[in-house]
Each structure stands twice: as C-alpha cells, then as structure tokens.
Specification:
Layout: H1 11-20, E1 30-32, H2 39-42, E2 57-64, E3 69-71, E4 74-76, E5 85-88, E6 93-97, E7 100-101, E8 108-111, E9 120-123, E10 132-140, E11 143-154, E12 157-160, E13 165-169, E14 174-181, E15 190-194, E16 197-198, E17 208-213, E18 218-224, E19 233-239, E20 245-252, H3 257-291
Parallel strand pairs: 2-11, 13-20
Antiparallel strand pairs: 1-4, 3-9, 5-6, 5-10, 6-7, 8-9, 10-11, 12-14, 14-18, 15-16, 15-19, 17-18, 19-20
Length: about 290
C-alpha cells in the first residue's frame, strides 16, 4: 500500500512532518555510495558497489528529458525501525520516507528490495524543473547522515548540416546529414520527410536510402538519387526524442541555379515590402482620424 499526501507543503509544515516520522537507526547506521558514475544513474538494472562510507558525499546523475532518472542511495546497518528519506533541496519538499511517498506527483517512487542496501528514488518522465540537488537523509542517534545527488536534465538537439537551404543540379544526388546530440540514450528512430510525406521507405519514388548510426552523437544520412524538379521542397529530420530540424532543397539546372536564388530573395523582399506598405496605410488612417 502506498500513502500519498497532496503536495504543496510549506517549509515549516514539511519540517514538522519530517521530524514526527520514526527516523531511528542503530548508532552504526551509515550511508554508502558508489562514486560519481553518471552511467549508473540513468541506466536501470545496475547495482552499485557498497564498500564506501560517505556522509555528506555527492554523486552526479544525468537523465534525458522525458526519460527516467534513478537516484541511488546505499544505506548500511539500518535498523528495523530506521527510515530513509528523500528531500528535494530546491523547495525542501520531503518526497518520501521509507517506501511511503509524500507528494501528489506520481512520477516519483522509491525502489527498495527486501534485504537490499539501495534506496533508489525513481523519477519518471523527467522535466526541466526536476533539475537540481536531492538529499538522501537518515537520522541516527549521533546525528543526521546525508548523501546528495545532483540531477542534470539534458535536452537532445537535432540539426541538419549546412545552411537553411541546399542547392543541387538536376539529375544529381541529394545528400543530407542530420545530427542528434546531447542524448544519453540514442533515438529509437529517425524519420525523414519531404514536405509532409515520410520518405524513409518510399518505394514509389525509388532511389532513396537512409542510413542511421546511433550513439552519443547520432548521425542519419538521407540520399536521394537522380534529383528532379519535384524533389525540391522542405526536408525534415524527425527523431523520436527531440524537436525536428528542417532544410529547404532547390533542384535546378546549372544555368538556372542563380535564378532560383534570385526568386527566393525576391519573394522575401516582396513580403517585407507588403508588410511595410500595410503599416504605412494603417499609420495614415490613424493620423487622419486623430486630427478630426
């Protein structure tokens, strides 16, 4: 059974509840940690070493936006009546005591197996606001013993190599490379779109291939052979764990490449001129009615 208390407790109330909890351990109670390994922080199924006593120690955990963070705390020689508590330092909110959770945010949960020294705070679907320091705290007869975990949330980013537009000759090959970085966990997929149509498996067009190399810096290469005028348009790289990135491709004959650039620049200038004209007309109307 899990006991949840609606969140939003103030510091005095939170402190009062915390000290009313049965936080008693043996005089030999200690907190142990497994160093500052970042990989063990976000990868599940890893049991860290418990051979170092470390009061007031600090470890670092990196988690990806939208993923799951695991904050480990190893507590040795805990008596039967002892309790381990997790506190969020940003607002001094008591998140848990033992296996009980004291927040209405269901993303938080304490994982602890019978006989294990590991009291893990699990945070699902991590958000940017989860970034910060968390304290694993045990009260002993000789004082407070704490271990701190600094949680860093990283946001993956995607971009296509090159500027905002790409020019190729008619009949040549379109090569586009999309990079996904700042991603502890590689994206599950990378899809390419031409305008609004996904083209990874385009059997009708043919001559299209996509090669993706996952990793800390994932690379996805799009190749379109025998470019035609219909292949002009917007190309988008969409990964599973980040916002999409786009680039505009112009396909034209060699002699018409400059004409294509001029048409795009002329269109942009026309849009700016139209906006200025509207502003001038609006100003004239306001002045006319203001003087009457």
């Amino acid at each position: 059974m899990k006991w949840r208390v609606a969140g939003g407790m103030g510091v005095p109330l939170a402190a009062a509840i915390f000290f009313m909890l049965p936080l008693f351990t043996s005089s030999t109670g200690d907190i142990r940690h497994h160093g500052t390994s970042r990989s063990r922080g976000w990868r599940g199924g890893v049991q860290p070493s418990a051979d170092v006593t470390a009061n007031n120690s600090v470890s670092n955990v990196t988690a990806q936006l939208g993923g799951t963070a695991y904050l480990h705390c190893l507590v040795g020689h805990l008596s039967e009546r002892g309790q381990v508590s997790w506190i969020r330092k940003r607002d001094w909110h008591i998140l848990s005591s033992g296996k009980f959770t004291y927040t209405n945010d269901e993303r938080f949960q304490v994982l602890h197996g019978e006989g294990s020294e590991d009291w893990t705070l699990q945070i699902k679907f991590v958000q940017k606001r989860d970034n910060g320091t968390y304290e694993c705290q045990v009260s002993t007869r000789t004082g407070i013993v704490s271990h701190y975990v600094r949680l860093q949330i990283v946001v993956p980013e995607a971009f296509i190599l090159g500027s905002g537009e790409h020019h190729v000759d008619l009949g040549s090959v379109i090569h586009l490379i999309c990079i996904v970085e700042k991603s502890p966990t590689p994206p599950q997929f990378v899809f390419w779109y031409h305008n609004d149509r996904m083209i990874n498996y385009d059997a009708i067009r043919g001559g299209i291939s996509v090669e993706t190399e996952p990793g800390a810096r994932t690379q996805s290469r799009l190749t379109v052979r025998g470019a035609t005028l219909k292949d002009s348009g917007n190309y988008t790289c969409s990964a599973s764990n980040t916002e999409p990135a786009s680039i505009h491709v112009f396909v034209s004959e060699g002699s018409n490449k400059m004409a294509a650039i001029l048409r795009r620049n002329t269109s942009a200038i026309h849009g700016i001129t139209s906006s200025v004209t509207c502003l001038l007309l609006l100003s004239s109307v306001m002045v006319h009615f203001g003087l009457r």
